[in-house]
Design goal:
Tetracycline Repressor, domain 2, Homeodomain-like_sf, DNA binding, TetR/AcrR family transcriptional regulator, HTH_TetR, DNA-binding
Length: about 200
């Protein structure tokens, strides 16, 4: 079997993410990817079974990178406020440094690939987050809420700030750059809303 050329694999990964983020999955084609990478379609099929396998593998790899960044320095037994702040810092640092990742993961999440990719990367992440939330509820540091409600309150404000940051503007095309001060100010409001 032919060995993997790591430079080609990285180029394929980056171009896949770029093309999916820019044009969506429905407009992504293996032929366009091969052309953009300056390689033959046959070369892609050395590494991937088909288009679905390619998208799935790239998404799982990027999802694992994001998960590792999110869980770095995170202790699920921390107090609710400390642990959630660590999550906000880790997520914002990774996604601000990797804007392509943010756009790509969002497209994957909203597609038919979302469930399959999520299942492949979720166990370590979900176990840590479940333990964190359950501990916070038990210690009466967090209002008991359905997971969807808690997640929406805890993270939607962060992801909206990151979206504005990546766009470089907020409402009415007003220039926007996410600062540490604004991140903390928003976080403090979120924590206040989630505490009993």
């Amino acid at each position: 079997m032919r060995t993997r050329n790591t430079e080609k694999m990285e180029l394929v990964r980056q171009m896949t993410m770029q093309m999916v983020a820019a044009n969506g999955i429905e407009n992504f084609s293996v032929n366009s990817l091969a052309k953009a990478c300056g390689i033959s379609v046959a070369t892609l099929y050395i590494y991937y079974k088909d288009k679905d396998d390619l998208i799935t593998q790239v998404a799982i790899e990027e999802g694992n990178r994001l998960t590792s960044a999110i869980l770095k320095d995170f202790d699920p037994d921390q107090s609710f406020e400390t642990g959630l702040w660590q999550q906000w810092k880790s997520r914002s640092q990774y996604l601000m440094a990797n804007p392509l990742s943010s756009s790509f993961i969002e497209r994957i999440h909203m597609s038919s690939y979302g469930e399959k990719v999520g299942a492949a990367i979720s166990s370590m992440f979900h176990d840590s987050m479940h333990r964190f939330v359950a501990g916070a509820v038990k210690r009466k540091e967090l209002v008991p809420l359905p997971v969807e409600a808690w997640w929406s309150v805890a993270f939607a404000p962060l992801y909206n700030l990151l979206r504005f940051h990546h766009q470089g503007r907020s409402f009415a095309k007003k220039p926007f750059k996410l600062t540490d001060e604004l991140l903390r100010q928003t976080f403090d409001v979120v924590v206040k809303a989630l505490k009993p």
